[in-house]
Amino acid sequence: MAILAGKRALIVGVATDRSIAWGIAQAMHAHGAQLAFSYANDAFKQRLEPLAASIGSKLLMPIDVQVDEQIDAAFELLAREWGQIDILVHAVAFAPREALAGSFSANTPREAFRIAHDVSSYSFTALARGAAPLMAGRAGAMLTLSYLGAVRSIPSYNVMGLAKASLEANVRFLAADLGPRNIRVNAISAGPIKTLAAAGIGGFRKMLAHVAQIAPLRRNVSTEDVGNAATFLCSDMAAGITGEILYVDSGFSTVGMSFADGET
Ligand code: 0WE
């Protein structure tokens, strides 16, 4: 059953074939959606081209989410090429690397805070403003990606936790704002996945192992797990769901206490 048949989606945030955004794109394509992609700069463009081609997508456009003119130009291009869109996927986050280690209070200068919130949260507001007019008269869906650090302290996640808390509030305010236009806005809070964004983060492998030992499903989640949930949330199967943060995390966030297998 092609639950996204006839739907057109813009995917923002594919960096490599391990990106969560790429898992979402593959699942949405498998369920009948037509896809357009943005890339942050020329280096990402090179990596994206063969991926997009592999699922028959020809619409690629530059979007540096920190540049309003690029966002405007991208939606002008989509308006010319497609006229309308049904789905926006936002899978973008960045904080300066020095802010993602050690002491939160010591390693969060004003500029790192500003950049994290601009790239990781404001960008969703800006993209929603551009996308909403192209969803007029349709059943629109917008989706972003969050992480448990929005609502719990996690070592080293630091200022990204504050930015994800802002992003989750963004989901609720956009849902209230755009709901009367029949546009739904939701987030998936994914468990940790080894993507380019996770590469080089100290202790990441330990975090993956911890989740796999503690979470009810006793495994990590995959980009395919996230892609399938994203496909559901952006389909008409989820027509009654908006303003929601859906956890796709093997149940990790629901556990109050858990022992490694073999113990009580
Ligand atoms: O949201 C994220 C990571 C986003 C991210 C990653 C980087 C790495 C490279 C944002 N900014 C940067 N800046 C860089 O220079 N995740 C949910 C993955 C993640 O990142 C962590 C985690 C987890 C989980 C960082 C510390 C602790 C846990």
Question: Any overview of this molecule?
Answer:
By secondary structure, the protein is an alpha/beta fold. The chain has seven helices and seven strands, in the order βαβαβαβαβαβααβ. Strand 1 (8-12), helix 1 (20-30) and strand 2 form a beta-alpha-beta unit. Helix 1 (20-30) crosses helix 7 (223-233), helix 3 (68-81) packs parallel to helix 4 and helix 4 (110-131) runs parallel beside helix 5. The radius of gyration is 18 Å and the shape is globular. The termini are far apart. Ligand 0WE is lined by residues 93-95, 97, 100, 147, 154, 156-157, 160, 192, 197-198, 201, 207.
User: How do the strands line up in the largest sheet?
Assistant: 3-2-1-4-5-6-7
Ligands bound to this protein structure: ligand 0WE
- Unreliable stretches covering 5 or more consecutive residues: none
How many alpha or pi helices?
A: 7
Please, what is the average pLDDT? Answer: 97
Strand content: 5-15%
Query: Helix share of residues?
Result: 25-40%
Distance between the termini: 43 Å
**Which structural category do the helix and sheet elements fall into?**
alpha/beta
What's the story with the biggest beta sheet?
7 strands, parallel
Compressed to H and E, one letter per element, the order equals EHEHEHEHEHEHHE
Radius of gyration: 18 Å
Number of strands: 7
Q: What sort of overall outline do the alpha carbons produce when their principal axes are compared?
A: globular
